[in-house]
């Protein structure tokens, strides 16, 4: 209703601009009002079509947005790279110097690039060990998921069997009742 009032008000203002002498009081005859009201209805329909189209476009955009896939809390996390392990070691010292995150990233990146291979070796070794551990955890995780899936299939099968037995017993009871009656 509020939109109709706004449309009508806007329309009356447009007519007033076109015809400053127009009188919109109630003493105007229906014949004098008719052309304006017809024009108002046409303008109103056009406005409502435009707003309906805009609303449908907005709803379509909302539907098209992909929802984020929920992460499995039991799934093992990927191991950190050697560089990130190095950065974690350097982080407390650099943070104590009140460096920003950007500055810390630049400093550690430059230090890592200038490091000798022998200095990088402990971090790369930790990364290799973490990756092996991750692979083992992922295998266990996959086995757990497969087991859950097979258990779910078994449960579904059992439920279906129970439903079939229930239907059979109900049918037998109906047959017995039909024979008795």
From TrEMBL:
Coiled-coil residues: 131-172
Domain (HMG box) ranges: 76-142
DNA-binding region: 76-142
UniProt GO cellular component terms: nucleus
Sequence ranges of Basic and acidic residues compositional bias: 51-62
Metal-binding among keywords: no
Protein keywords: Coiled coil, DNA-binding, Nucleus
GO molecular function, one term: DNA binding
InterPro entries: HMG_box_dom (IPR009071), HMG_box_dom_sf (IPR036910), HMGB6/HMGB13 (IPR044601)
Keyword Nucleus: yes
Annotated stretches, region: Disordered: 21-40, 51-78
Name of the protein described by the UniProt record: HMG box domain-containing protein
Organism: Malus domestica (Apple)
């Amino acid at each position: 209703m509020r939109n109709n009032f706004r449309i009508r008000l806007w329309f009356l203002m447009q007519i007033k601009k076109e015809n400053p002498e127009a009188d919109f009081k109630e003493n105007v005859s229906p014949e004098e009002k008719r052309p304006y009201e017809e024009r108002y209805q046409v303008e109103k329909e056009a406005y409502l079509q435009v707003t309906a189209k805009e609303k449908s476009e907005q709803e379509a955009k909302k539907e098209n947005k992909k929802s984020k896939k929920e992460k499995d809390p039991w799934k093992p996390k990927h191991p950190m790279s050697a560089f990130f392990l190095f950065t974690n070691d350097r982080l407390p010292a650099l943070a104590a110097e009140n460096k920003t995150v950007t500055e810390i990233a630049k400093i550690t990146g430059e230090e890592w690039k200038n490091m000798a291979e022998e200095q990088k070796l402990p971090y790369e070794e930790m990364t290799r060990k973490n990756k092996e551990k991750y692979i083992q955890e992922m295998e266990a995780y996959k086995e757990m998921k497969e087991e859950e899936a097979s258990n779910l299939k078994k449960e579904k099968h059992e439920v279906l069997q129970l439903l079939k037995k229930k239907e059979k017993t109900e049918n037998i009871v109906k047959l017995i009742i039909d024979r008795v009656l």
